[in-house]
Amino acid sequence: MAVVKQTARGIEYIEPAVLAKKKTTFCQACLWRIPHNSGTHHLALKIGRYRIDPRLGIEVVDTNKPKSQLTLDADELDSLVEYLNDHYGPVGAGVRKYLTIPDSTSDGFIENLRALVERSDSSELISAISESGILTDDVLAGIEWRRRATAVQEFEDMLDSDEVEVEWQDWFKKNDWVLKSDCVRILDERSIDVGSIADYLVEGYDGFLDIIEIKRPEGTLRFWHAVRDHGNLIPSADLVKAITQCQNYLYEIEREMNSRKFAERMGVAVVKPRSILIFGRSCAWGDDEREAFRILNRSYSSLTIMTYDQVLERARKIIAVQPAA
């Protein structure tokens, strides 16, 4: 039976408990009930890791020289208890994803939520959640913001690991929101003709067909030529090849623009298509590179070049105006 003891100063406490013992140290916790002048009491928890004095025996603690010691006040202790109550069980059981529900939540709400998430048909689940009113507009906006924030972090990680082109194609396909200022939707169709397959054929905001082409951000590809021409930065051979590929795609699309079969296959009208090329890195650029990039981009009427770092900055700005709920 646990017995509440009292110090000479009238502070109540429970006999300290040894949490773990090692060869030269052990960890100990003690729960205190601290009186206040108002007549109320606040709980406090002292946790310490103490040295065992080898001269006096393994059971004797050198309390004057603890290796570490911390006393949590009432608010900190409440927060710790809440944290452990919410997370100790599922994390200890190896659960990878779980939902913490406040104690004030009604039993009916919990049962309805459990019934919803146990549905096997995803379309049925989505409809049921929408009709239930469980997820408000603010919650839905917060979920979408979180998804996009996770995608941006994934984008940054992929840049660090220098992923190959196919991985980037998958990322842009799953996260076309980052291109929404340039297109309404990515089409399922990618083939212009037998010999020309673009990364993405898209419907622009004006309802006409455009192209988005991406290349691996780094690897062996470089944006600028290693040697300047008359003191001027010039595109690398890799960038010139990518630009030429985009221009050829535009040419092939314009050749098909009067084809009824092509229009039916695309489902989008074709008038003066434009292309966006995502190529290379710009995070280490100085004023010379940025100025040369501006001049390069303005030299094309139907092509816009973006670097991966510019796409990343665009994505950050998009989620910056989203709710963080």
Overview of the molecule:
With 325 residues, this protein is α+β, with helices and mostly antiparallel strands. The protein folds into three domains: 4-90, no CATH class; 101-135; 153-320, no CATH class. The chain is built from nine helices and 14 strands. The longest helix has 25 residues, at 137-161.
Task: Name the features.
325 residues, alpha+beta, 3 domains, five-stranded mixed β-sheet, seven-stranded antiparallel β-sheet
Reading the helices and strands in chain order gives EEEEEEEHHHHHEEEEEHHEHEH
pLDDT averaged over residues: 79
Shape: elongated
> C-alpha Rg, in Å?
31 Å
Major pleated sheet: 7 strands, antiparallel
What fraction strand? 15-25%
Range of helix content: 25-40%
Q: How many angstroms does the end-to-end distance come to?
A: 46 Å
Low-confidence stretches: none
Number of self-contained structural domains:
3
**Structural classification:** alpha+beta
How many helices? 9
**Tally of extended strands?**
14
